[in-house]
Amino acid sequence: MVDINRNKYYGMIHKGVQALLKDRMGFCDDDEYRNYLGITVGKTSCKEMTDEELMDLVKGLRDEGYLTFNKQPGGQGEGNRPTNAQWAKLAALAKDKGWSGLNDVRLDAFVERTAGVKKTRWLTRTKISEVILGLERWLGGRHG
Question: What InterPro entries does its record include (predicted)?
Fold first, then answer.
């Protein structure tokens, strides 16, 4: 059993669900937030959830691209890790391709072909830029 910081998870879930609802519905209010929790987990409040349910919900939001891997806002001065904006752009492009998000195996395969990196989560700032450019070109070629 892993001890988690529940308040940190509450914040991540709130942020991720807000982003998801704004993306899918154009708005987010308390009723829709609680409806989403109820549909997804069967509980309308994070406080009612077990640690495992909180962790699963955060994982799902990350997989769909509504929470980023980067823990430092903006990634300024943190080595060569991609910025939140880069992660968000990559997640949006993956969705445009019809993929499930940042953890989709098809994205991993594209990342490996394009940047020579086995897993999306291992991308650097430079490599993620290559992947974003490659996906933009691929999507542009299909629509044009």
Answer: Phage_Mu_Gp16 (IPR009363)
Residue 72 located in a structural domain: no
> Per residue in 111-125, pLDDT tens?
999 989 888 888 888
Residue 1 lies in a domain: no
Q: The tokens 């059993």 sit on which residue?
A: 1
Quote the CA–CA distance of 15 and 66 in Å, as a whole number. 8
Region for residue 100 given its phi and psi (left: phi exceeds 0; alpha: psi -120 to 50; beta: otherwise): alpha
Q: What is the pTM of this model?
A: 0.53
Same domain, 46 and 89: no
Q: Angle at CA 16, nearest 5°, toward 14 and 20?
A: 115
Distances in whole angstroms, Cα of residue 127 to Cα of each of 101, 117, 123: 18, 8, 6
Domain count, the chain: 2
